[in-house]
Amino acid sequence: MLPLAYGRTAEEFLQIDTDRRRDFMKITITAVSVPALRQIQAFRKRYEQQYPEDDLTIVCFYVAGQEQRYVLEPERIIKDIATADVAVVDTMGASEELQEIVVKGLKACKGHRIVIGNALRDYIRLGSFSMGAMGKMMKGSGGKKDSGNVSGTSGTDGAEVSGNGEKKSSAGALTKMHRMRRMAMMMGNVLPFGVTRDMKNVFLLIDYWQQATRTDMESFMHLILRQYGGRKFLPKEKPCLSERSFFHGNLGYTGEILEEGGF
Predict the structure, then answer these.
(1) Number of helices and strands (H, E) in the chain?
(2) Which of 7, 101, 142, 201 sits 20 to 30 Å CA-CA off 82?
(3) Structure confidence at residue 131 (pLDDT)
C-alpha cells in the first residue's frame, strides 16, 4: 500500500483521477433562451477550471434573431447536432425553416435527444426512453391515442396538426403533456431504473431548463453528465427550485442578442 495522503491512499487518489478521465463527450445545445444559455456558458467555464482533465465539449447555438443565418448556412448546425452525444433543442417560436434544419440534425443524431417545447417533442430520446415508448405506455394505461403531429417536422408550439389537417388547440396539447409528466414522475419514483428512470429524467431536465437559475442549470448538467456521461464524481442534481408545470408558453425570454463568440 502506498503512503496515506490527506486521509486517502495514493491508490484511491489514482482511482479518483482515473474516474475523472472520461471518454470524449459532446453536448450540442440549440436554443432561443438567453437565461439558459448564459447559465450554460458560466457552467462550462467553471467546469473547465475545476475538471481541466475532462474531455467535455459543449457547443451552443443561439438561434433567436439569427434564424436566417442558419437557414442560409445550415451545414454546421446540422453537423453539430448530428454528432452530439447529447443534443438539447429549445426552438420554441422558431420558424418552420429553422425547425426543419434542426430536425435533419436530430434524425441523424445517434445520441440522447432532449427537446424543450411541443413542435419537435417526438424526437425526445433519453437512455431507454423515447416519446414513441411513452405513447405506447399512455395508450396502455387508458390514454387516448394522439392523432396529432407525430413526425415533428412541422407545426408550431401553439398548436398541432391532426391527421385531417385541422389544428388541435394548444390547451389539448398541454393537457396531454401534463398527464405524461404526472405519469413519468410517479413511475420514476416507484421504479427508479431503466425506462421509467429515463422517462422521469426527461421531465426533470425540462423543468430545470425552464427555470434557468444557476442551481437548476447545474443540476441540468450534472444529471446529464452523471447518468448519461459516466461522470459519477459530480454531485447529484438538486430538486427543481420551482414547481411550475411543464411546457409553459411564456418563459420570459428576453430579446437580447448574444454574441456567438460568447459560446
Answers:
(1) 9, 10
(2) 201
(3) 82
Stretch 207-225: mean pLDDT: 96
d(CA 256, CA 66): 12
d(CA 129, CA 112): 10
Q: β-strands 86-90, 25-31: how paired?
A: parallel
Supply the mean pLDDT for the chain. Answer: 75
Average pLDDT over residues 84-98: 95
Cα 180 from chain centre? 17
**Cβ-proximal residues to 21 (8 Å cutoff; 6+ apart), any chain:** 53, 54, 55
Q: What is the pTM of this model?
A: 0.70
Beta strand 125-126 pairing with 129-130 = antiparallel
- What span, in angstroms and rounded, lies between the C-alpha atoms of 35 and 213? 8
Q: What is the DSSP string of 16-69?
A: HHHHH-PPPEEEEEEE--HHHHHHHHHHHHHHHHH-TTS-EEEEEEE-TT-HHH
